[in-house]
Structures are given as C-alpha cells and as structure tokens.
Amino acid sequence: MIPMEPSKGEEADAGKVNFAAPRPFATAFKSDLKETLFPDDPFHDFTGKTLPVKAKKAVQYFVPVFQWLPVYNRKLFMYDLLAGITIASLAIPQGISYAKLANIPPVIGLYSSFVPPLIYAIFGNSKHLAVGTVASSSLIIADAIEKKVHEADNPQLYLNLIFTATLISGVIQLILGVFRLGILVDFLSHSTITGFMGGTATIICLQQLKGIFGLKHFTTHTDVVSVTSAIFKYKHEIRWECTLVGIIFLIFLQLAKKVKQRKPKLFWVSAIAPMVAVAVGCIFAFVVNAEEHGIAIVGPLKKGINPPSLKNLDFDPKYISAPIEAGVITALIALAEGIAIGRSFALMVNQQIDGNKEMIAFGLMNIVGSLTSCYLTTGPFSKTAVNYNAGCKSQMSNVVMAVCMMLTLFFLAPLFSYTPLVALSAIIMSAMLGLIEYDKAYHLFKTDKFDFVICMAAFLGVAFISMDVGLMLSVGLALIRALLYVARPSSSKLGNIADTGLYRDVEQYPGAISIPKTLVLQLGSPIYFANSGYIRERVLRWVRDEKANKDSHGDDVEYVLLDLGGVTSIDITGVETLVEIRRCLEVQEIKVVIVNPRLEVMEKLIVTNFIDKIGKERVFLSIKDAIEGCKFSLAREKGNEEH
Amino acid sequence: MIPMEPSKGEEADAGKVNFAAPRPFATAFKSDLKETLFPDDPFHDFTGKTLPVKAKKAVQYFVPVFQWLPVYNRKLFMYDLLAGITIASLAIPQGISYAKLANIPPVIGLYSSFVPPLIYAIFGNSKHLAVGTVASSSLIIADAIEKKVHEADNPQLYLNLIFTATLISGVIQLILGVFRLGILVDFLSHSTITGFMGGTATIICLQQLKGIFGLKHFTTHTDVVSVTSAIFKYKHEIRWECTLVGIIFLIFLQLAKKVKQRKPKLFWVSAIAPMVAVAVGCIFAFVVNAEEHGIAIVGPLKKGINPPSLKNLDFDPKYISAPIEAGVITALIALAEGIAIGRSFALMVNQQIDGNKEMIAFGLMNIVGSLTSCYLTTGPFSKTAVNYNAGCKSQMSNVVMAVCMMLTLFFLAPLFSYTPLVALSAIIMSAMLGLIEYDKAYHLFKTDKFDFVICMAAFLGVAFISMDVGLMLSVGLALIRALLYVARPSSSKLGNIADTGLYRDVEQYPGAISIPKTLVLQLGSPIYFANSGYIRERVLRWVRDEKANKDSHGDDVEYVLLDLGGVTSIDITGVETLVEIRRCLEVQEIKVVIVNPRLEVMEKLIVTNFIDKIGKERVFLSIKDAIEGCKFSLAREKGNEEH
C-alpha cells in the first residue's frame, strides 16, 4: 500500500493516517453552524454571479412569486382556475365548520380563506399547498382561550384573544423561519403527529355528536370522558329529526369518499360533496323551516369582505397567557402539518421545499391574517390533496380560491345563513374520520414498538387528558428516546469474513472469524458526556467476556482494536473516556489500538494530545492494517523474548 | 470472495449480505433493556452456578461487606487504622465548618461523620471513598430551605426541614439505584460539574468574607452581586483583629497545601492542617478571651452521640416544596460528585465501581442519617483523596473514622466550643479555592468551545443568579448539544485511497480518488425522526454538488452508494427518509445502493419491506463489492445499448 499524498505540515513517517493539524476553530464552527441552520445550502448557486444577478436571485429566493409569475402563462392558468374553484367549494363549508369548532362567528372562517391565500401566493414556495383553516388548530386555540375567557360570557373579548393568538402564532413562525430554526419542527416525529391527529380527530368527532344529536347543552371540556358523560347527562335533549338528518349527511359524505377511494379520478365527487351537503342543507332548512323541528341553523352572515382587526388585538396582561399558549402550540403544530404536507406533495413531482422559507410564508400570512379578521391558517391535508388532484400548477390556485371567496363574501354570504349546524357537524365528522389512521398505528406496532408507544402517548393523552398534555407527553417520550439513542449507542465485536479483508459484526455474520489474541470492537454514534460512562463499561465488558471466552481456549487478549469509523464526533468527556479505557486495559497488559477516526474525531484527539499519548504508531487507517501491525509487534516481542 | 456461511432461512443467492429474519421483538427488547439499565452486566458470573452459590453471590453483590470482611486481616487493618484516624482529623473541622455553612448547629456536622460512614462501610463498594458532608450540597440545601423558613426565625423548624430534605435525597438516591437509573447522572457532564463546582466555590468563598471580616450582619442571598454589596454595606462592622487572625489561618492552610503539591508524600501536612488550625484557634480563643476582641466562637457543643430524629421529620404541605427541591438537586449533585470521585480513585487501582450500587449505598446512608440527626453526606473529593493517600485498603477506614467521631462526641466535643468562627471560614475558603479549576476551564476553551460554554453557563449562572438556575442552564445547554449531535449527524463523501480497497472521507484524505459516475456517501449516527429531514436534505445536496462538479467534466452521477456501516439504528421516519431519498434520486435516474447495514438497521429495513422494494441485489457488504456490482451493471447496460 502506498501512503496517500501527505498534506502540508504532516510528517512523512505518519504513514497512511492523516494527522494533519486540526481546522481552526472559526472554520469548524462555520461548518457546524452551516450544517445546523443551512443544511440545504440555499445560496449554493449564488457563487460567481455578478451583483445584479445576485440581487435578483435573492429577491426571487425570498419572494417566490417573482420566480414563478414571470414564466406563468395562460395554459397553466386554466389548470389553476379549475383547481382554485374546486378548493373554494371545499373552503366554504370547511371555513364555516371549523370556525364553529373554534366557537367564533362562521364568517371569520370565510375571511380566513380570503386574505391568507393571497399572502401565501406571494411568499409560499409550494405549488400544491392550499391554504385554509384546520380542525386541530381550531380546537387547540379555542381550548387554550377558553381557560381564560368563556365565549358565552364575552364573545368579543374571546374573538379578540383569538386574533391575538393568531398574531403570536404568526410572529413565532416568522421568527423560526428567519432564524432558520426549522430544526424545532424536526422534533415532532411522524409518530407523534399520527397519534396527535388521531387523538384530536377522536375528540372532535365526539364533540360533533352535540350537533348531530341537536343538543342545546354540552361540556366545554374536550376529553373523551367529559364528552361521553355530557351526552349521557343531556340525553333527554336529543332530537330525532336532527339525528336523522345528520346521519343521512354523514352517509352521503362517507359514500362520496368511498367513490374517490375506488376511482381516484372521481376525486372531485368527494371534493364538492361538503358544498353539496351545505347547499342541500340550506335549501332543506329554508323549505321545511328547520328551526321549528329542532334543527338549528348557522344564523345571520354579514355581507362584505374582511374588516381590519388591528384595534381588536388585545395584549391585556390579565389574559395574555392564554393567547401565548395557544400561539406557541398552534404555531408549531400548524408548521409541522403544513410543512410535512407541502413536502410530501412536492416529493411526488420531485420539487424541493425549503421548510424555513415555508415558515416565513406561514408567519407572514398569519400576521397579516390577524390584522384582517382571520384566524390561524396553514396548509390542511384535505384541501391540499384536492388542489393537487384537481391539477393545480402553481400558487395561482390559491389566488383563484381567494377571488372566489371574495365573490362569496360580497354576494352569497347571506345564503349560507340557512346552513343547518347538523350539516356542519357531519362535514367535520366525515373529515375527522379520515384522520384516525388505524393502519398506520398498526404498522408502527408491527415495525417499531417504541414509535408505537410515542404515537399512543399522543393519542391517549389527547383523548383522555388534554391536547397540550398529550402532545408534550409524546414529544417528551420522543426526546427521551433520542437521548437514549445517544446515551446507549450500540457497539459490536467484529470478526474477519473468510477470504476477504472485511471485518463485520460477529452477531450479524455468524461466519465471521475472531482474530487470535485480538478483540476488534466497532463503536458508533458520537462519544460524549451522556454515553461515555456507558461506553467505558461496555468496552471493559467486551474485554471481560472475551477473556472469559478465550480462557477456556488457553488464549489471551493482547490487543483491543477500537474501530472509530462510525463515531461521528467526540467531546472532552469522550476523550477522557478513551484515556480511561486505555489506562484500565494497560493495567491488564492489553494494548489499545485506534482504527480510522473520522475528521472531527481526529481533530479532537490531536488537540487533546490523546494521539501523542497513545503514539501515532497505534493509529491505523483500517482494521486490516491494524491487525498486521499488531501481528508484527507480537512477533517482534516474541523474538525479543527468545533472544 | 467466498460467500459467508449462510444462516438458516436465508436464500443462498442472497450473496454475502445477511438477510436473515429479524430477531423477535422480545429478544431485541430484552437486549435493549439490558444495554440501557445493566450495561455492566452485574450478574455475569452467576450463570452455571448452583442455587446456594448464587444466593451467596447475590448477598455479596448487594451487601459488599460480606465480600471484603471475610478476607479481611490484621495487616490490612493497620493501614485502615492510620487512614481512618487521618480522615477523622479532617472530618472534625470540616463537619463543624460545613454545618455552619448550612446554618445548622455545628454538632450536626459531627453527627454526620458518625452514622453515615458506618452504613457506607456495609453497603458501599468503593474501597477509597471517605464519607462526609460537602460544601456545595450544604449551601444548596440551606439556600432551598431559606426560601420557605429563615433559620433566624425558627431554627428548630429549619433544622427539621434539613433532615426532611436529607431523607428525600436518600430516598431518591435509593430509588435511582434500585431502578438502575444511573443513566440520569450521565447527563451531568464533566464540564457542567467543573463549572458548577467553580461557581459554588466562588460564592462560598465570598460568603466566608463575613467570617473573615467578623461581620455581624450579612445578606442571605448567595449571588456575587448581593454578597459584594453586602460587604460594602456593612464595611463599618469590619474588625481588624478578626481579619488579621483569618488571614494568618488562610496563609497557614494554603502553605500546607503547597507542601503537599511539592512533596506528595507529605500529604498528611495538608490533611491535618485544618485540625491544627482548629486546635490552635481554640487555645488562642481560650487564652486571649477572643470574644471580647470581636472574634466570635462556635459556642456550646453538646456531649453525646446522635439523638434519633424520626419525630423531627416534617412533611407539612406548607413547607414541603423546599425540602423536595433541596432533596432532588442535592441527590443528583451528591451522586454525581460521589460516584465520579469513587470511580476515579477506583480506576487508579483498576477496580470497577458499579454506579447503581453506589447510589443504593448513598441512599441508605442518607435515609439512616436523616433518622439519626445527620444531614446530607456523600463522598467528598478532599476527604477521599486524603483517605487514598493515607493508604486505606478497604471500607474499614470509614469505620475507624466513625469510631474516632464517636469518641470525640462522647469526650471532646465541649473543647471545640472555643473554635473561632474565623478559623472555620479560613478552612472553608482554603478548601474552596482548590475547587476553582482555572486550568481545566482553559483546557476546555482550547479543546472544545461548546464544552467551555456549558462550563461557563454553570459557573456564571451559579455565581450571578442562583445555584439551581446555573445548574439547569448548563444541563439544558448540554442536552441541546446532545440533541444537536443527533439532529445534525455528519456525513461525508468517500473516495478510494490509491492501491487499496479502502474508501475514506475525501475532506480528511485529500488524496482519495472519486469513483466515476458514482457518489459514495458515509452516513453516521442513528437515522431517526429528529435528523431524517436533515439527512434527506444533506444527501440530496451532496448529489446536487456532485452533479455541479461533474457537469464540468462531462460526467454524470449514475449511482449513489449509502454506506450505513456507521448508522447504529434507524426508526420508522428514518426508513421513510431512505424511501424518499430513493424516490427523489430515481426521478433523476440515479440508482441508490445500500452498503453494510448493521444488525439493528438491517432488521428494521427488512421489517418495513425496504429491502424488498430496493431489491436484495442493491445491498452490498462492502463499498468495493458495491462499486464492482455497479460497474458490472453499467457495462451490461452499455452492452445492451450497443446491441
């Protein structure tokens, strides 16, 4: 083997391992910072461009509308027009329903599908995302505000706090985006989101029983126990007419979904089904004078577009804790949902989504929304899927939807005042039933028990305690798991695979042959304070076991080879641990050899003088080299003894 | 190359990679649980033994006294006798001083060196650890209790809450030990402890200025700002006689330390110096009638050994939060300190310390202590070092110390009532000065900037805010770092090192040669929810960069090899990420090849059908094999094209 080109400053006799001086702190820090905050290297095609080109690229980067609008044409618009009208027909019933879920006037739900989509069309970078309100965030926001102010007691203050929560949510999303803290959203795992969505959908479904049964009284709590007991408590209020209508709507909506599942091309059936339900409901309510039969209707809806709501924002310290809580939780949940959904659709057409830019777009749309009588919006799954299936080609479909909503607000709003509440309940229930993913939970159970536990913690926590407790429980478990991953990294004993230079885990490859007098251990993960105690114990245990094993063969361990190829980084405590391991083994007359430390690890080992202590001749580039080196010194020692 | 022995159930054509069925859940779970809670495999030599032998071994395991006492002899005892007397001479002044620090009667400090060492001698497994009170925990416990009850207002209640805190601390330590949660202590890194100890030592030193200056009034706050302003506020109370005596004692004690540093054999000079200071101080105070010259003395000390204190324990809900806070923090700090110290001395003589067993011993000694008028004890560094240097051979030295303390309590206690407070302050200051490790902080600064920040967060937090805030700040930062380690694992591009089959990081080994049409990426760390988004971005960025790079050479990427050898585990989200990476790359007509997945990763890939999706022929045991495989299919494709 020929030694590699030695880098400058390196001694020629250092052999094949690169002992070059570590990178200066500034370089290493810059590289770490980049990997932490700019993993997607957003400015990669800026290098070597002139200033005007750079400026143009920067504007296009931060405001994507400048990127897609100049190349937009009539053909693309025809697609977006169709998609926009389709999602508008979904936005109207969803807007009214979810606003009812948040206990705010239904028209706020319609407002929320007018301004935010326009803002998203300018700043958003997903071509498929359809902006709108979502059930889970509507419920969370209502739940948090209800802790301070009951909607029934002071509807105006309640509404003002909802706007305040929306502003806070938007500001948090903007800040996260600007400081590129998308990393926080990474800690909401798929399992947590699956469980959380399932739990939220369950309690929302149960709450809709109020509407389906036509109850007048109900609980303000959201957990399963309170809700079911409330139904039993007020069961004398159940109106059979209402229940019957509700069940009919529900069956209709579920059938429409089945059609889509059977024939994906007929997706529009399920897309316009809610609108049909609302329209039929309105006509029915108007014709039969439904209110007299115990079927409540939405009630007066004001004509006209969003009034400004700057002066509605309320930062009274007496209440501020509630909108802050609502804002923080919904900001993260909405981001996680919106980004995940935008990303999965983008993946289908091999487009890349920059999570941090999406956060900025979401933040801006919620800030502007909070000033124009909108409440929290994000990219809901149902709407986005419809948008995608309807063939949208760009953010223009959101503009089309916004224009449709504007027309509705100007001319059609009063018509919707006849919408029966039971129809809205049926629409919400039908949407929510699709969010309880039994099969995904079962898949988790089959493939990863811990992920299943994380998922169930969110589900059961949300269903039986409260949404924030469920979420925190699940995130807490996921974090503990993350810490356990690093606190207990796996290590394995390697053996030689016959007739190759390969060394692999003897447990995984039972045919791999142990090397006489030598124990080859593969470490993985970073070595640092949280796992260094464990790694020391584990290595010493491997040695003890090996000795116990070899004793019976009359053989002894003389070398321990630590393969650090899988160790991505090491801290001071980690280096101290290697020193301790070495000291413990030297006492037992076992020599420690280091194999293939990676760049960052090597830097740390050099800075801390570990390499000098152990000697450069004890560091090898590959296990094969190391074993040959050990054999050579074994032979030499034997030779010396014989002399 | 000959394929390895195929394991049962494996298809013969699977080649060298082991695609054997995953281990059943129970096996994998048991193995994970063992690694998490029993990394040291405590029962390893139980297998194959008869029941009586097992029972005997179990008793010896849980109660180490049965292990060492039967083989104990007179010769060993002579060593322990000397060591025991030496540490007793240190225990008396330290006991009185630290009790003053905790604002409790000095005799409690003496009691605390009588009962707990006896308990430790039975259950402890370190031969060198000397039990006693420590300054930091004394201050933490006082600080927490002062929040609820001022010592000056109700000394008896204050003392009772101190006992309660000690009991809580002991119970927590016992529970942690029984449930083998030593893993929690792992999260207190060396950097945190260095900073915390330095910060505590700084504020304790500053507080001793009260004693040195002979002030009558002082602040109850512990932060640097409050303490220095208190000194300025009460500077008219400064007594020069007291200050002079204090400085003389301090110089004497520091000189004694210097002697030890110069000639380690004269360690006993610094070991008995505090006792000499106390004795000289007593005689001086008695002769010159010190109190009349503004030099306060300790005051009456009761004769007799520890009275029971069961009825003193106070669980009044009004105050209970204070002892709980004190108990939790001191339990962890005392464990971290005691275990770390026990371990480092054990390492010197190649003895193994089981952290979990130590926790049980500490827990029992504090529980029994709280019932016999003792407050929190652990294994202080200074005392343990003296014990080790004095040549102790077993836990018997603690018994000797306890007997000495008993004799002192019976006969000599009243003599110590003349101890001048200024002497105690000088003893504490002198001990604390040694705990501020400038050189260690500088070492951290030079070798690891983040560790330095963690250390300084603890130091500055403790010095300028409060002890618990400083500790939490530092642990929080350390946890964030731990999570960042897993959220942003390093990945690198590999190249072939000329004339070898080795593939190494091209950044680390600039001579490594890239492979035509192929990008070899090495991933590390576990792949799971917290880093899967990053890994996807990073891999796609590697591919993009490689394409941009190769474009200029008129070459194109056709294969991406993912070397998973360093990936220790993977979760559902991680597998989904691999699927996404594959899908994204297939769109670009790039094929993904997996190299050398480890046991746990392979299991997960099989269970989730990833292997079936990608095809077994796309999984290789080594990079070399993979590249040969790719070349072969490239050639075949070319051949097909030519036909």
TrEMBL record, chains A, B:
It is a multi-pass membrane protein. GO terms for molecular function: transmembrane transporter activity. The keyword Transmembrane applies. The chain crosses the membrane at residues 76-92, 104-123, 157-179, 238-255, 267-288, 326-347, 359-378, 421-438, 458-484. Its main location: membrane. It holds the Pfam family Sulfate_transp. InterPro entries: SLC26A/SulP_dom (IPR011547), SLC26A/SulP_fam (IPR001902), STAS_dom (IPR002645), STAS_dom_sf (IPR036513). It is found in: Membrane. Gene3D superfamilies: STAS domain. Residues 508-630 form the STAS domain. Keywords: Membrane, Transmembrane, Transmembrane helix, Transport. One of its GO terms (cellular component) is plasma membrane. It comes from the Eukaryota. GO terms for biological process: transmembrane transport. This is Putative SLC26A/SulP transporter. It comes from Helianthus annuus.
